[in-house]
Amino acid sequence: MSKFILAIDQGTTSSRAILYNHAGQIHGTAQQEYPQIFPAPAWVEHNANDIWHSQLAVAQQVLKDHNVSASNIAAIGITNQRETTVLWDRTTGEPIANAIVWQDRRTAALCDQLRADGKAELFQQKTGLVLDAYFSGTKLKWLLDNVPGASAKAERGELAFGTVDSWLIFKLSGKHVTDTSNASRTLLFNIHSKQWDDELLGLLNIPRSLLPEVVASSGIAAHTHAKLFGAPIAIAGIAGDQQAATFGQACHKPGMAKNTYGTGCFMLLNTGDQAITSSNNLLTTIGWTLGAGNAARTDYMLEGSVFMAGAIIKWLRDGLGIIKNSNEVEALATSVPDNGGVVFVPAFSGLGAPYWDAYARGTIIGMTRGSTKAHIARAALESIAYQTVDLMQAMQKDAIISLHELRVDGGAARNDLLMQFQADILNVPVVRPIVTETTALGAAYLAGLAVSFWSSKEEISAQWKMEKRFEPNMHQAEREQRLHIWHRAVQRSQAWVE
Predict the structure, then answer these.
(1) What is the chain's Cα-based Rg?
(2) pLDDT category, 432, cuts 50, 70, 90?
């Protein structure tokens, strides 16, 4: 039996590769950051080749560093930043423009026009998504309309579209595929029929020939070119990063929820085989599809998305320069007893759920002469927790459930101050597992299930272990007052761009 699963974790700011053993423990890891491109206000791009080269480099590096050959890898699982849109030439395998990143807001006006044309309900009914610049469909339309010659080439079948999972699989194997979880984030995929939707493609004038084949999240989808790792390796797990994290957190049953504190902040609630349409501006999305044919099972999620979470801490480091390293933020924030009246709404690229305001902008309010960088740091951390409360309140209205605990993961989940404040302001226990890098772990589990490296979801659930539990410790009156002030600040940030 092969000893490891190789997880490829392609994130918004870095590419990682992690080796997992049968116990779900990390055997080795490699990581590489790559450039962020900001060509205009609220525009965010990546060079797709930077993504590919950095991801291949860390995958090869982790095998070399730990003296692991391809024969010791049972399968590869891929997880990726979602919605980021890549368009490439099928013959040359080269991108025809920079990838448009999920954070990018350039298509907000197009979404406004589609809403004005009365199309919002149609998109929500079929895709489970709100009409927002966040998703891939309008980004793809922008590329076709604005890259010289792209539309004609697409009509001739010369181009391929994909989210980052598709791009990496194409470069790794030559196959053009995606899984149901990533397809469900495009505004082009009917989550009920689990097919690309011709009516939606027609509305955006997108040729069907651009689109990848949709496969299960757990199942052998391709094999890598032998030259990359010395021998072919099965690619057997694919999932968007937040769905992968939900699987890695073992939220396999309806009513279980997790929150990932990464570049953004993403809360997902498992609703089982029922796609619940949100009445509170949340998203209905596919979590994963296991198995094939008549035996295939798809689990659905309710999701709330916050655009700026861990990215706020990076901005404190790179934008303001008030910390030199991201892990300094907790010490700086705890150097003051409270936020000193400062409230930070991090709407740098608009507000996500439940507001969906593409024209909101970042706002720091309540400052006085006594305000310091420590107060700003504390307010920045608190903003992550406040945004999560907004998601959870909307989620509980939609799903009509009472949440008993929130499982957390991601880099900022290691911050005890943030996690305790999250429990306090949410009034729900927050549970941090021993393994907080659950995104890559989820991709590994999906791949491992497909090749019988793990036998069942029950075996995977048994591997989940708690590291720390944060209990709420705030009076209700204080909680309500803090949330009142937060919502006043949010209102002041909204509709700023005219």
Answers:
(1) 22
(2) very high
| 425 or 264, greater pLDDT | 425
How confident is the model at residue 401, as a pLDDT? 67
| Length of the chain (residues) | 498
**Strand bridging mode 195-196 / 4-10:** unpaired
Q: Which amino acid is at 374?
A: A
* pLDDT tens per residue across span 398-414: 876 677 889 998 888 88
The rounded distance, in Å, linking the Cα atoms of 439 and 347 is 25
How many CA atoms lie less than 13 Å away from 308 in the CB half-sphere?
23
| CB burial readout 17-50, b (16+ within 10 A) else e | bbbbebebeebbbbeeebeeeeeeebbbbbebbb
CA 176, 178, 182, 183 torsion: positive or negative? positive
Q: Which amino acid is at 48?
A: A
3-state secondary structure of 399: helix
Which tokens is 467 given? 């590291």
- Judged against a pLDDT cut of 70, whether residue 1 lies above it is answered with no
| Dihedral sign of CA atoms 163, 120, 196, 92 in order | negative
| Residue tagged 């089982």 (tokens) | 272
Mean pLDDT, to the nearest integer, of 446-452?
Answer: 95
pLDDT digits (tens, 9 = 90+) for 232-253: 999 999 999 999 999 999 999 8
**E strands in 200-316:** 213-215, 218-223, 234-240, 257-261, 265-272, 283-290, 297-306
CA angle 50/51/55 to nearest 5° reads 115
Beta bridge partners of 190: 195
Which secondary structure element, helix H or strand E, spans residue 469, and what is its range?
strand 466-470
Number of helices (H), then strands (E), belonging to the chain: the values are: 17, 23
Q: Which of 489, 452, 179 is nearest to 365 (CA)?
A: 489
To which H or E segment does residue 446 belong? helix 438-450
Query: Does the pLDDT at position 218 exceed 90?
Result: yes
The CA-based dihedral angle spanning residues 201, 202, 207, 209, taken in that order and rounded to the nearest 10 degrees: 60
